[in-house]
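Sequence in, structure out. Go.
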Amino acid sequence: MIAIVLAAVTVGSTTLGGYLALRSKDRFHLVLGLAAGLLLGLVGFDLIPTIFAGNGIFVTSKVSLVAVAFVAGFLILHFTEQLAGSHEPADSDYDHEHTHFGDFAGAIGATAMAGHVFMDGVAIAVSYKVSHSLGIAVFLALLVHAFSDGLNTVAMLVKHGHWTSRGKLLLIIDAVARIGGATLGSYLTISDNWVNVYLGLFAGFVIYIATSHILPEAHSRHPSKVTMLTTLAGVGIMWIIVAIL
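Output:
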């Protein structure tokens, strides 16, 4: 139940990010830089130590199934977004119409978005099954990620004139997917080893989002030292959170 409530809070964070995107565009890069740092810190300081310490399933004598899941998570999201033509930087000057291929690509993009936020919801619930401290760390990182997602998605829709027709639908998809994922994760009964495999997959998603999506967007128009400092601050904040918890 706690995981479902926390997932609902991340929905509110996405909505707030979208609202602020309608009001101001001058500080996007700072929020994105902070979000990337928090996600990198989450994977490096919490997820990886937790999942590799507890997993006992091996594909070969030296390769853990968690490691395979980690790489697979990165590649699944990468290939999905390449097929969808999605996650173009909101500040990009590249012609949006030439990077998408009609309604089919839009449908794939919406599916990809729903899939990754659904996995966010599942991750909050599953991480709570491992420990409350890991659940809180995942929630805090996803809270800022959700904010940056809302900010960036709405900014892109406004730029291309689609806010009225698509913005509300995307927010509804976000809410249903996150809460639905947390609900499913709360009621799943799986062994500790398979929990770690899922978290490995999720860690691959997070690394992809942070390095291939959020950081390039943060620097697309503002390759500033301040943005780099906010990324370092995000890593440091997550380090402190993990140490305290």
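Check: Residues 2-244 form one domain. Residues 87-106 have pLDDT under 50 and may be disordered.
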